[in-house]
Automatic annotation (TrEMBL):
Cofactor: FAD
InterPro entries: CobZ, FAD-dep_OxRdtase_2_FAD-bd, FAD-oxidoreductase_2, FAD/NAD-bd_sf, Succ_DH/fumarate_Rdtase_cat_sf
Recorded coiled-coil stretches: none
Bias (Polar residues) ranges: 469-484
Domain of life (superkingdom): Bacteria
Record key words, sorted: FAD, Flavoprotein, Oxidoreductase
Organism from which the protein derives: Curvibacter cyanobacteriorum
Ranges where the record places region Disordered: 465-484
Name by which UniProt lists this protein: FAD-dependent tricarballylate dehydrogenase TcuA
UniProt keyword annotation of Cell inner membrane present: no
Pfam families: FAD_binding_2 (PF00890)
Domain (FAD-dependent oxidoreductase 2 FAD-binding) ranges: 6-437
Gene3D superfamilies registered for this protein in UniProt: FAD/NAD(P)-binding domain, Succinate dehydrogenase/fumarate reductase flavoprotein, catalytic domain
Gene coding for it: tcuA
């Protein structure tokens, strides 16, 4: 770009692309900097599948109704109240109106595949997954004249009195100082930064460094460089706990980076999970899998060696999305214990106690059924059936980090705040601010809802700031305009 852009967008995933598209549609010139090479563009968005959507009646690929209050209660439950209700409801309402805009930019939706977490009512699935969504947005952005530079990580920002002045980037190996009238930060969390994860999680009472055993489900490029720079060098207002994250129990054989959704183990609620001592440690049937799957990464992270084992029998086969790797198979439970490297006596005591405690009623994994345990701790409150039908299967689990929740405190204008004062030209979206809505916990598809809502708001506000247009005195009016 030969002249200074109106809006600089830093990041290359869903939130960044939504911001770039909205700013361009508002008439601003836009430059987007993506740290990754073109082949790896899109950040964690490339690994997504769906968007959690509020709707009051059946809509295209969504069945039934998922009203605002139910969505809010689902979010309230998984976060344990650690959420900003006003911003959460903004995201929820925005999710009901964004799909037509997404379609205009080339995104296609499809009904969920069979067995896809029972979310046909709550989640709209992208045809071709997140990679197709990212590619569609890049095609639309380039067609509209958004300038894109790959292999362009930003190392630091110039900020004066809360106003963005310039970004210092390394573009394909060459340092550049890039000025712009306004800037949107959407460069992701710090989940790929092993040193920062280690610092956040520290050393446990067993002398372990838990983060050393974490796998990263998505991009290797989310190092948190700008996030730390904003928090430590510029004193930006922060939100969130650095140990909280969207963390899932995934196959221990998954790669260190970019394993994506196919490495997740989805059979947890159909069997039991034991630690390396062969003991259960949490209620596997607490709630529906889409609402509770993201607690299991943290639960496994708290076990010795940061490892767990999901155990099922043949009755469970066909009732969950199969993972990319086959499970360890055995014709008896003692054989399975040996093949998994677990202490056989403890494992068998755990399984025998669990099997004896099962009170089987009418099993239905699509409902909160009446199959439960009695007289065993921890209880299994739903879908409890004896594990007694060969062959038996076991999957070793490790914590898989999707994205971190420590971020920049913002409001419904998406402005970055310094000493509680919103910047007039620096905005934030996506993982860098998700902690405003997600203090802890997760429910399927809400990360894309947050990124889409705040990406669109940030892009609209940045364009207005760059063009010298007055931003709404009432921030809610600005947000409503951005998401309409």
């Amino acid at each position: 770009m030969s002249t200074e852009p109106d809006v600089l967008v830093i990041g290359g995933g869903n939130a960044a692309l939504c911001a770039a598209l909205m700013a361009r549609e508002a008439g601003a010139s836009v430059l987007l900097l993506e740290a990754a090479p073109r082949a790896w563009r899109g950040g964690n968005s490339s690994h997504t599948r769906n968007l959690r959507c509020m709707h009051d009646a059946p809509q295209d690929v969504l069945v039934g109704a998922y009203p605002e209050e139910e969505y809010w209660q689902d979010l309230l439950k998984v976060t344990g109240g650690l959420t900003n209700e006003a911003l959460a409801r903004l995201v929820i309402r925005a999710s009901s109106t964004c799909r037509d805009w997404m379609r205009r930019h080339g995104v296609h939706f499809q009904p969920p595949l069979s067995g896809a977490l029972h979310v046909a009512r709550t989640n709209a699935f992208f045809m071709g997954g997140g990679k197709a969504l990212v590619n569609a947005y890049y095609r639309s952005a380039e067609k509209l004249g958004v300038q894109v530079r790959y292999e362009a990580p930003v190392e630091r920002l110039e900020i004066v009195d809360g106003r963005f002045v310039a970004a210092h980037a390394v573009v394909q190996g060459r340092p550049e100082r890039i000025t712009a009238k306004a800037c949107v930060l959407a460069a992701g969390g710090f989940e790929s930064n092993r040193d920062w994860l280690r610092e956040a999680w520290g050393q446990n009472e067993r002398g372990e460094w838990p983060a050393d055993n974490f796998l990263i489900r998505g991009t290797a490029f989310n190092q948190g460089v700008l996030l730390r720079h904003l928090l430590e060098d510029h004193g930006a207002d922060r939100i969130g706990d650095p140990t909280q994250a969207h963390m899932v129990a995934i196959d221990a054989r998954a790669p260190l980076y970019d394993g994506g959704i196919c490495t997740r183990i989805d059979c947890v609620s159909l069997g039991v999970v034991v630690n390396r001592e062969g003991e259960r440690f949490y209620d596997e049937g607490e709630d529906f899998w889409p609402k509770r799957y993201a607690i299991w990464g943290r639960l496994v992270a708290q076990q010795a060696g940061q490892i767990g084992y999901s155990v099922i029998d043949s009755k469970a086969i066909g009732r969950f999305m199969p993972p990319v790797f086959q499970g360890v198979q055995a014709n008896s439970l003692p054989e399975l214990a040996r093949r998994l490297g677990l202490p056989e006596a403890t494992f068998m005591r755990t399984l025998n106690d669990y099997n004896a405690a099962c009170r089987v009623g009418t099993f239905d994994h699509t409902e909160l059924d009446d199959c439960h345990t009695e007289g065993v701790t921890p209880a299994k409150t739903h879908w409890a059936r004896p594990i007694d039908t060969a062959p038996f299967y076991g999957y070793a689990l490790k914590p898989g980090v999707t994205f971190t929740y420590l971020g920049l405190h913002t409001d419904d204008t998406a402005a970055v705040r310094f000493n509680q004062q919103p910047s007039s030209n620096l905005f934030v979206a996506g993982e860098m601010m998700a902690g405003n809505v997600l203090g802890k916990g997760y429910t399927a598809g809400v990360g894309m809802s947050i990124g889409t809502a705040f990406g669109r708001i940030a892009g609209t506000q940045a364009a207005a700031a760059a063009q010298g247009r007055s931003q709404p005195n009432n921030p809610t009016q600005g947000a409503s305009h951005a998401i309409a």
